[in-house]
Design brief:
alpha+beta, 9-stranded antiparallel β-sheet, about 35% strand, globular
Amino acid sequence: MGLQAALAVVLVGALFAGLWYLTGDGRGLGPNNAPAKCTPAKPTDSAEYPALCAALNRADLPALMGLPKERVLVAQPGMTLGGGLGLDKDSYGAAEVQFSELYVQLADSTDVDVDDYARLYPSADPRAPVLGHKALFYRAPTMTLSFSLGGGKSTTGAGAPAHALAVAKNPGGTGGSFELSVWRKDSLPIDDAALYRLAEAVLPGLPGWAAG
């Protein structure tokens, strides 16, 4: 029987028309199983990626996510943009980190405000502000792709929804947004409070964040 690998793919609606390819294979681990360092940026990556990955891949991230005994396995650019929506690496950047079963993404968009999420995701739920900045919560569908490393047919299926928190860069709600997304490969419940803990810890140090 060929070796098996699972590839989790996240679809975040028509807004980004993008795919996240998440191998979770531990290839980014440092020496002696130390937490993974951020993958160096490539010319095709957004200019925002290095700062986003450095901010997200912090020493206390496992504790913030409720996984104090785990470590980051992979830290890399977040999404591959689809075409047709006018978003490119000059207006959108993302970084993601992977634990054994949980994935976290931090994205920066200069062209998408929090109110845009509300229009694109009718079920989106306005939430308490993050440090005085308008915030909105929504769920995005995910898909899983399983394939054999030894060849053979791949299979796809529906995964558990990703939970996402979009936060305005400016207290007034304009000027773009940051987005934190969390999803699990094992479909166990997601602690939405972790999104707020992470947002309050990470967002104030990012370029583009305007203090209230």
